[in-house]
Amino acid sequence: MANKILNRWLPMLALACMSLQAAAFNVSGHITCEGAGVAGVAVSDGVVVTTTDASGYYSFTSDKKNGYVFYTVPRGYEPAYANGFNPQFWQQFKSTNTATAETHDFALTRSDNDKYIMIFGADSHLAKRNGDRTMYNNGWIAALKREKNAAKQSGTKIYSTILGDLTWDLYWYANKYNLVDFMADQATYGYPIPLFPVMGNHDNDGAVKPLTDNTDLLASKPWRTFVCPNYYSFNLGRVHYIVLDDIFYTNSGTASGTGMAGGRGYLDQVTDEELSWLVKDLQLVTDKSTPIIVMFHIPQFRLNSSFATYGAGRNYAALAACFNDFKTVHFMSGHTHYNYTAHPSYRNITEHNIAAICATWWWTGRLQNTNYAYNYCQDGSPAGYSYWTVDGDSLQWKYKSIASNGDAQMRIYDMNAVKNFMATEATAKALVKAYPGTVPTFGTYSDNAVLTNVFAYDTDWRVEVHEGVQYTLAANRLAAYDPLHVLAYDYYRYKSAGSITTTFATSTNYHMFLSQAHTSYLPITVKVTDSFGQVYYKTIQRPQSYVVTMDASQAPYDLGDVNGDGVVNVTDVTALINKILGNSPTGFNSIVADLNGDGAINVSDVTLLINKILGTAQ
């Protein structure tokens, strides 16, 4: 009898205890999946970090300063997505009064997502100017839809981020386009995959009074109200993702622009409060072999002209130290609008700085007046994104253009044509004269020089250059200007307006390679092998025109066409066999003879070539 009474009252007692417990805190709730509580889920307000109990219940006391509560999506689950793309892992507080207790419940969905694709874009800079929203929709959104369709065909999940500067603070009031408008546009355009966004310096409210103790907090309020927390974490499969806000917005400087209270100044640092939250978050990642991907806007590490990595963030050392115990850490950043990979002295950390979705603030696309198709960043990279494939704890990546032929990894320049254009074309001559030291003439390059821009180059990549089928050329890395950006922005901007914005002018980049050709007419073939053994080829016929549409004429070289006649057939097999036997066939292009990419030319390459020919014949 006593047991029956006890069993009857135990659930009621548990609920009563839970109610008393909740009364001691001002934030509480449940995290469930299919009606059942999910244990061990981290929940935070950006200061306190707690976890759910066995029933999925959490509670804590918050100062409510940040205005939100969020949970860290656990492995094997996903949040709900509003409009198909907006993850609902957070909620705004209902009251700023800390004496007001409130409840925030969340529902998860189970997901087998150890294998997936992650798209890292950066710097969309939508501002309702330059036809930017049209280019964004036709470029970035269209590219994501292609990626989603391809992932669907292979049964692979796909996610995305934009690494800050979704908008442009200068135009929030001038053009009446802010974060609310940005989020509305994503719903209108049908943003096709989940988006985990990152806050950038231009996503702050410049109408906030500058240089007060609360400037940074108040300036980020629209983001924290309409987009998501300005820093948070989530798990996708075995990878732990951390989003940080590494902008301390001061709004310092002279006010300029409609609605601006200051000069939109900022410091590139992570606040102490945020670092404290980060330490608590990482303490819950008990397996230190877990890959960590940290996403923020402003790079913490950069390269100098000698290709050496240096710390750039104001407190980069304190940030890096938080990850000392972890084996593999990738920093993902934007802000610069160009590509580079940095390897700091913290050997477990690699930083990937990603070129911009908007390229040169959408200028190059507008200037061409050709359906906005030709958008190039200041380093010559096409507007694009970093494409990552994740399989458990295995990570691979490459850069892709938002153009329909998005897998291009390089561009080759016949510097004879570039030099001739800059020295003889009337507008080019006037441009160089008007902006000496800013716009290069390329006149110092020797005759028959060849320049290759390898957009996402890393130090373990190989760049090989052949001239015709008889010459192998050295490929020497150098810090240099990209000629196409000079043409696509500097030249056309000057031609249309009689001036350029020098902060948008072509900038030195660190992924250029110089080769000295023997002739002015033999074709150039470049072979690039990336960190994962993926091989890319590109060939140009010389003289190569120096025009905005030059990418279209730089076709991938056909692997196996060892005699360079434009066709892969039995004559190539004969030439390949003779090469292996030491008969030194004439007209042999060894750069496309290593079909399996193992660094040697042997019988296995012959087998692959024969299979390729037979496959083509069928």
UniProtKB/TrEMBL annotation:
Residues 555-618 form the Dockerin domain. One of its GO terms (molecular function) is hydrolase activity, hydrolyzing O-glycosyl compounds. This is Metallophosphoesterase. PANTHER family: METALLOPHOSPHOESTERASE, CALCINEURIN SUPERFAMILY, SERINE_THREONINE-PROTEIN PHOSPHATASE CPPED1. Keywords: Signal. GO terms for biological process: polysaccharide catabolic process. Residues 1-24 form the signal peptide. It comes from the Bacteria. It comes from Sodaliphilus pleomorphus. InterPro entries: Calcineurin-like_PHP, CarboxyPept-like_regulatory, Dockerin_1_rpt, Dockerin_dom, Dockerin_dom_sf, EF_Hand_1_Ca_BS, Metallo-depent_PP-like, Metallophos_C. The lineage of its organism: Bacteria, Pseudomonadati, Bacteroidota, Bacteroidia, Bacteroidales. Gene3D superfamilies: 3.60.21.10, Dockerin domain.
